[in-house]
Amino acid sequence: MSHCESDMLQEPTPLTHLTKPLASDRAGLGVATRNVRMMHFLRRLALQFNEAGIDLMLLKGGALLLTTYDDPAARSMSDLDLLIRPADMDRAFEIIESMGGYRSQILMREDFFPRFYYEAEYTVGDVMPVVMDVHVRPLRPLRYAQFMPTEALWTDARKVFMNDAFVWVPEPARMLIHLTAHLAVHGNSSQKWRDDIQSWTKQFSREMNWDLFLQLARQWRLSLPVLSGLDAAAQGKQLIPPQVREALKTIPVNWRDRLCLRQAPRDNAHPLAHVLANVLTTPGIGFVLGYLYAATVPDQKHMREWYAHEHWGWLPTAHVCRLTRPITKYFKPLWAFLSKTEVLRQEDGSLCLTARRTIHAGQTIGKYAVRAWDGSSRFSVTRQYNDGQTERFTMRGKMRFVSTSVRPNARFDGYQLIAIKRICSEEAICVNLERSTDVTGLKKQGQTTLISQKAA
Predict the structure, then answer these.
(1) What is the mean pLDDT of the chain?
(2) Residue 38 covered by a domain
(3) Which residue, 7, 208, 331, 388, has most beta carbons within 10 Å?
(4) How many domains is the chain built from?
């Protein structure tokens, strides 16, 4: 492994351009405000990583804001894409959680990340939350995990200073491969990602090592998505030398490469096809069998998040509902009956508890349980007893994704969430930021009080 430092990436200090006057239009001001908020949080996070001796790499929009875009409103960001080495995962997560970060993903099994899944999502804050996708490898399709080594983007990475802290950014050829392949596996759908590729090639085309670019695209089996992403981003422009594009077209691809790229943009909408495509295209029989078991037999933690009801036969019922989901997903009234709520992603990247159907005032929205405090959940519950003793727990279930507002439409009553006014279908469910409730049934020397509060 090797790193190099580029004067072009260090001068001027990258955060200085974030002090320029913000955009005057409302939309631009909103983008600039969020970006400045995220980048200043990133500086504080990077400083903690630097002091701990852990390398932290910045990808995609954040990296472009530090290296190519001059205006903080030039490129909207919904999250920060960070890359760490798998060996640093535990220490990195400790740092993020010490700064108020909480995990906002429930995966198939505890070991699904990092073995089979490429990122963990963390959120910090509530008023203007910062969402972080913490990667241990750059791309989602499982096939690429077998071809891209751990040091794929770390080799010759460049150091970018953020005042008193620094992060790493991939060297130009490796970064271009990542940007183009990422665009392709998401269906070439985002204009801002196409703009990123145009900006990166414009900034670094003269120093780009095109021989290395072709070599790595071949070695990592990424020539097909790279070419697809380049063509989508070009939009009639010439982003790379014509001979490089022709050389990309001559790199052999097989049916597994084509199936992998065809399925990747459809993964969220077609989870069964997603699993089958991973099984068919990923090399390594032992690795594939382990993935197949993890994907088909989720643990109870995942199933509790997936199925809303708690009863003596909830686990078999949850598995039946999950297995029939490819058919029953087309029957929205059925799912509205099975669950009053669902967790949806908002425009700012955060997850939010939302009503599936109209909920009238006084109705119970749902119940939550607690488990031992893990330091990473959105809500902590502190149980206070009359003798002064307290116990801290982690809130379990979908209810922990409830939003906060100065105009709440729900409240906690013991271990239940109750509607205090009519909540319409697809409306976010909100409570006050701080709340205390009297809880019956769990007592120790008298009445017990539960206080639910933000972990961040």
Answers:
(1) 82
(2) yes
(3) 208
(4) 4
What's residue 334's pLDDT? Answer: 64
Report which of 213, 223, 220 is spatially closest to residue 253, judged by C-alpha positions.
223
Alpha carbon 276 to its chain centroid, in Å, reads 23
pLDDT digits over 354-389, tens only? 888 888 888 888 877 676 665 555 566 666 666 667
Query: Are residues 412 and 439 in contact, defined by beta-carbon separation less than 8 angstroms?
Result: no
Based on the fold, state whether residues 32 and 158 are members of the same structural domain. yes
CA distance 1 to 156: 7
- The answer to whether 261 touches 225, Cβ cutoff 8 Å, is yes
CA dist 302 and 286 (Å) reads 24
Tell me, what's the pLDDT at 91? Answer: 95
- Which of 402 and 394 is assigned the larger pLDDT? 402
In this structure, what CATH number is given to the domain that contains residue 415?
A: 2.170.270.10
Q: Please give the backbone phi and psi of residue 312, each rounded to the nearest 5 degrees, phi first.
A: -65, -30
Give the pLDDT confidence score for residue 358 in this predicted structure: 86
Q: Which residue has the tokens 């090639």?
A: 201
Q: Identify the burial level of 424 via C-beta atoms within 10 angstroms of its C-beta, where 0-12 means exposed, 13-18 middle and 19 or more buried.
A: exposed
Instruction: Please spell the DSSP secondary structure of 89-105, one letter per residue.
Output: HHHHHHHHHHTT-EE--
Decide if pLDDT at 440 tops 50: no
The 10s digit of each residue's pLDDT in 191-223 is 999 999 999 999 998 999 999 999 999 999 999
Same domain, 152 and 216: no
What is the sign of the dihedral through the CA atoms of 146, 147, 149 and 152? negative
**Would you say residue 286 lies in a domain?**
no
One-letter amino acid for residue 142 of the chain:
L
Which residue type is seen at 317?
T
Q: Is the pLDDT of residue 159 over 90?
A: yes
Residue 196 maps to a domain? yes
Phi, psi for residue 66 in degrees, rounded to 5: -85, -20
Burial, 90: exposed, middle or buried (Cβ in 10 Å; 0-12, 13-18, 19+)?
exposed
- Together in a domain, 157 and 8: yes
Ranking 11-20, 143-152, 212-221 by mean pLDDT, the lowest is 11-20
Is residue 22 located within the same domain as residue 126? yes
Domain assignment of residue 63, given as a range: 1-170
CA distance 456 to 123: 9
Whether residue 160 is found in the same domain as residue 186: no
Contacts 24+ apart (CB under 8 A), 289-296: 290/115, 290/116, 291/115, 291/116, 291/142, 294/108, 294/109, 294/111, 294/112, 294/115, 294/116, 295/108, 295/116
User: How far is it, in rounded angstroms, from Cα 442 to Cα 434?
Assistant: 21
